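Page 37, continued from 36.
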């Protein structure tokens, strides 16, 4: 199954949903960041949520950033997504190794620890919109559920899962976000709670061959899919952007680099690409500035 995101409505348009399959996206992230299994799961869950929250944005140029700061060994994870469900992410530590939880799942909650979840929406205004909540469990799905309730006043159910194979590659990854729309009736709320209460694990479901569409049908009954799109790990860095970052270091710093007369390497943490600038190129950049 290719990585895909679907968006749609259910319960006579009283509920909207996003659901995604993200194995390749999370596997790309694992290869770029050389993550250990629990780090793959933590980053992968946040990337999957990011893809769906990116798809919630209304305008082409909107960007959404999800940032977790925790006192656990991973310490921090940042994911940025655009409305095309293209995502990228970084984490402070990629090599954490923790014992499995008693239910055999990777212990993302302990790896993340206590701290905050911030959602930063850059929607073209002078200041980005920032919502921040305390982490509930560090398991990410629960933390986002709490964020939507507290910060956006939208009753939401979030499910996320990453299954890491014995060779440490990603076997399955995916998730869903189900939201009650403002006019949802009491009956709809009760029925949704009843259906969700029997559901335990996104990865178990995906392991049995389920798809985002079949999962939403199982949880919500009759659904209308409004759109679907691919999900991708994509970094939008390029030489031009890196040049501007170099220029922004200021004349003094550029002079120092020119004086050293050595190539300067600029590293992109999101995709691990290096951009090398010769002393001659730095001189040209300084003249342009
Ligand atoms: Zn990059």
């Amino acid at each position: 199954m290719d990585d895909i995101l679907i968006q749609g409505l259910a319960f006579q348009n009283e509920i909207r949903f996003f659901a995604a399959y993200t194995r390749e996206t999370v596997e790309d992230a694992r290869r770029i960041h050389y993550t250990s299994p629990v780090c793959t799961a933590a980053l992968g869950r946040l990337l999957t949520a990011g893809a769906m929250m990116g798809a919630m944005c209304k305008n082409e140029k909107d960007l959404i950033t999800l940032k977790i700061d925790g006192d656990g060994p991973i310490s921090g994870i940042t994911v940025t997504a655009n409305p095309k469900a293209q995502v990228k992410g970084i984490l402070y530590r990629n090599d954490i190794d923790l014992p499995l939880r008693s239910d055999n799942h990777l212990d993302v909650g302990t790896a993340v620890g206590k701290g905050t979840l911030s959602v930063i929406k850059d929607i073209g205004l002078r200041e980005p919109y920032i919502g921040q909540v305390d982490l509930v469990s560090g398991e990410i799905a629960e933390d986002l559920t709490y964020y939507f309730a507290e910060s956006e006043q939208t009753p939401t159910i979030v499910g996320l899962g990453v299954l890491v194979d014995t060779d440490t590659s990603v076997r399955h990854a995916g998730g869903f976000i189900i939201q009650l729309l403002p006019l949802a009736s009491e009956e709809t709320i009760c029925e949704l709670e009843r259906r969700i209460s029997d559901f335990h694990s996104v990865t178990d479901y995906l392991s049995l061959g389920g798809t985002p569409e079949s999962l939403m049908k199982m949880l919500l009954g009759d659904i209308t899919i409004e759109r679907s799109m691919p999900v991708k790990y994509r970094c939008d860095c390029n030489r031009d952007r890196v040049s501007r970052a170099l220029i922004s270091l200021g004349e003094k710093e550029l002079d120092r680099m020119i004086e050293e007369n050595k190539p300067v390497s600029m590293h992109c943490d999101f995709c691990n690409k290096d951009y090398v600038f010769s002393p001659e190129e730095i001189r040209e950049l300084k003249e342009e500035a």
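The two ends are 48 Å apart (CA to CA). Flag for discussion at group meeting. The chain has two domains: 4-233, 239-288.
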